[in-house]
Design a protein that fits this description.
Blueprint lengths: L3 E3 L2 E3 L10 H9 L5 H15 L3 H13 L6 H14 L4 E2 L1 H10 L5 H13 L1 E2 L2 H17 L4 H14 L1 H6 L1 H4 L16 H14 L11 H13 L32 H14 L8 H21 L4 H18 L4 H16 L1 E2 L3 H20 L6 H20 L8 H6 L1 H13 L17 E2 L1 E6 L4 E7 L4 E11 L7 E6 L5 E5 L5 E3 L6 E10 L7 E9 L16 E2 L4 E7 L1 H18 L3 H13 L1 H11 L3 H4 L4 H34 L1
Parallel strand pairs: 3-4, 8-16
Antiparallel strand pairs: 1-2, 5-6, 7-9, 9-13, 10-11, 10-14, 12-13, 14-15, 14-16
Helix pairs in contact: 1-2, 2-3, 2-4, 3-4, 4-6, 5-7, 6-8, 7-11, 8-11, 13-14, 14-15, 15-16, 16-17, 17-18, 17-20, 21-25
Length: 661
């Protein structure tokens, strides 16, 4: 090892203390500064120096881990991200792992995600600490459902990096016995799924584990391999590794057959069959395209690698099936929406593929115009702009289609019919196999991590005010040029769009996907009854790829709507007002009447209690009353008040007469 010269002093790098070397010692002292910005800057500077000197990098690990106990969250987060960069293949001991265990249950998602990144690249020093870490990661999933995918990926890497320790911990991780049968655990439990992922990934590098696994593990392996192929290794091919023996493999009956080659064969066969559809009759060709679309949808479910391209061609064949035979206004509108989805959700087209989809979009638009008998001004303007927009794309692709300009401005319906007949004869429009399996087509997808299903919690609010819930989403293949919003729809047909800013979006280092953290706000001025509201994610198209009249009003919904129960508090206030009127009436009664009412109340206390137990809640607790019932009850209360007042006046008159007599 070369010596390092600092201030004309030669220091042996192996025996040197990092805090004793001039500038480096100052940086380490900066980690204990009283200002959080100074500590964060010192962490960044330590990382920059450690990139140039491996010796200092190995010694920095201990100092960076000690920053996990800092009082300021962004300083802790900075230290965790730096450790994830410099701790590749390094061993963490017991005390260092304990600092990680305390932070794995932090409320901050960024903190937990940074710790998962660290655990993917490090090795654990002893099996006991690894076992504690495994249980803490399982607890992390149970407490924070949004961390499920991240923790499972972390467990996969932990199993591969610590395979020797996993072999020692096998009796603790899985129910097993040397000569007795054990009860098979439920696969639905998350702790068993986590244990399977750790053990199976460790078996990939420690093949002796396979020989002692219980029989139920092989059955669970087949299911897990199908459900989570990215997290479960293919142990059938472990003989391909140089350090594994060929004898420790799964048997043929317990191994999982690989579906990728078969799905590719099916995909290629469908593309070859598509060329035969041109010779069929219109009605038969429509059925043929529908069958091809259904088969391609099955291929998308079989193979994740063919998901985007299979869904793209499936939607294309659905449009061809609609416009081939007996197209009406309703089906033509459906074809238009599918064309807009093809130009909005999918990316990576070649220039020719993009132009074919754009031309198909115009064809469906003109076909819709040709089916009408009378056109409004807005429809005409939209059609004129679409034709002009598509002509510019045709010039770019050096394609010309003759059309009558006079007919365009005098009779738009006849022009649409003429233009459709000319487009349908163009050879570029009649291509059906212009997309290949190896084309880099990507599909934008957004999934809700929290909430995953319908919101069970009742959301209460006052009319005119708002109530909000937090949501967490994961987006893949999202073009940052596109705008993404949250659409909230109410039962009366009204809806609103909530913007998602760049501050709410961050990139994940594990798979380059986007994590979106936002809030969904529900607000309605005239909402008087409990009802459901739905929210979903909408994607706006790019003007250069898809024709839109107004980019702020035309969008594509890319997620299934999730329902939330909205419960207004206005009816509760009405019921409280009713009870206040009842109290006023009781105060105007005579003492004798009040005594009789009290005696009656005492006698009926038990009956009231029984009635409440049977119903579970009274009317005020439910907070739910119809407007007609509440108005009727209020009118009855007013009549009761008038009757009591008249009775009180009559009694007072009788008293005066008695005194006179």
């Amino acid at each position: 090892m070369d010596d390092i010269t600092v201030h004309d002093v030669t220091v042996d790098a192996q025996s040197a203390s990092i805090t004793a070397i001039g500038p480096c010692g100052a940086l380490i002292s900066g980690l204990e500064d009283e200002y959080s910005d100074v500590r964060a800057a010192a962490i960044d500077s330590c990382y920059d120096i450690s990139c140039c000197h491996d010796v200092f990098q190995s010694k920095l690990v201990e100092y960076i881990v000690s920053m996990f106990d800092d009082d300021i969250e962004h300083v802790r987060l900075q230290a965790m991200r730096v450790l994830g960069k410099i701790a590749q293949g390094r061993v963490l001991r017991g005390e260092q792992v304990l600092s990680i265990l305390t932070e794995l249950l932090s409320r901050s998602y960024d903190i937990r995600s940074a710790l998962h990144d660290i655990l993917r690249v490090v090795r654990i020093g002893d099996p006991d600490t690894l076992y504690k870490l495994f249980h803490r990661l399982v607890e992390n999933i149970q407490r924070f459902k949004t961390d499920t995918h991240s923790v499972l990926r972390c467990l996969r890497e932990l199993g591969q990096n610590n395979s020797a320790f996993i072999a020692l911990l096998l009796p603790k991780l899985l129910p097993m016995h040397s000569y007795l049968d054990v009860q098979e655990p439920q696969f639905s439990k998350i702790d068993h799924t986590c244990a399977l992922i750790v053990v199976l990934n460790a078996a990939l590098y420690h093949p002796s584990i396979i020989s002692i696994l219980p029989d139920y593990v092989f059955r669970h392996y087949r299911y897990l391999r199908t459900k989570e192929p990215d997290l479960t290794p293919n142990l059938e091919k472990n003989s391909s590794h140089s350090h594994l023996t060929t004898t420790t493999t799964f048997n043929a009956d317990t191994s999982l057959s690989i579906t990728s080659p078969s799905s590719h064969d099916v995909f290629e066969r469908i593309l070859k069959l598509s060329e035969q559809g041109q010779d069929l009759h219109a009605s038969d060709r429509q059925k043929f395209y529908r069958n091809l679309a259904a088969e391609l949808h099955k291929v998308a479910e079989m193979d994740v690698n063919l998901l985007a391209i299979s869904e793209c061609i499936s939607l294309y064949y659905q449009v061809l099936a609609i416009i081939t035979y007996q197209c009406n206004t309703r089906t033509c509108l459906k074809a238009l929406s599918i064309c807009k989805r093809l130009l909005t959700v999918f990316h990576g087209y070649s220039k020719e593929q993009l132009f074919i989809f754009q031309q198909l979009h115009l064809y469906c638009h003109l076909l819709l115009v040709s089916l009408q008998t009378k056109l409004t001004t807005n429809v005409r303007q939209r059609c004129y702009k679409h034709i002009q927009w598509q002509r510019e794309k045709m010039k770019d692709n050096q394609i010309e289609i003759d059309s009558d300009e006079k007919l365009l401005h005098t009779n738009l319906i006849s022009y649409a019919q003429q233009f459709i007949s000319k487009i349908s004869k163009h050879p570029l429009f009649n291509k059906t196999n212009f997309i290949k399996a190896n084309d880099p087509i990507r599909m934008t997808s957004v999934t809700f991590l929290e909430p995953e299903v319908d919101v069970e919690q009742v959301l209460e609010f006052l009319p005119g005010l708002s109530v909000s819930i937090s949501c967490l989403m994961n987006a893949k293949n999202l073009d940052r040029q596109q705008t993404i919003n949250i659409k909230v729809s109410y039962s009366d047909g009204k809806s609103c769009l909530l913007p998602i800013t760049d501050d709410n979006i961050r990139t994940l280092t594990e798979d380059n996907s986007l994590r979106i953290d936002s809030k969904i706000t529900f607000s309605h001025h005239h909402w008087l009854r409990p009802d459901h509201a739905t929210f979903s994610i909408v994607l706006f198209p790019i003007r250069s790829q898809c024709f839109v009249m107004d980019v702020n009003e035309e969008y594509i919904e890319i997620t299934k709507p999730i329902r939330a129960l909205i419960h207004p508090k206005y009816s509760q206030h009405r019921s409280r007002k009713k009870h206040s009127v009842d109290e006023k009436t009781t105060t105007t009664t005579t003492p004798v009447v009040q005594l009789e009412m009290d005696m009656g109340d005492d006698d009926n206390d038990e009956h009231d209690a029984e009635w409440l137990d049977e119903t579970g809640a009274d009317e005020e607790e439910t907070g739910h009353m119809d407007d007609d019932e509440s108005e009727m009850d209020t009118s009855q209360d007013e009549e009761q008040v008038d009757f009591v007042e008249r009775r009180a006046n009559h009694d007072s008159d009788d008293d005066d007469d008695n005194m006179t007599y």
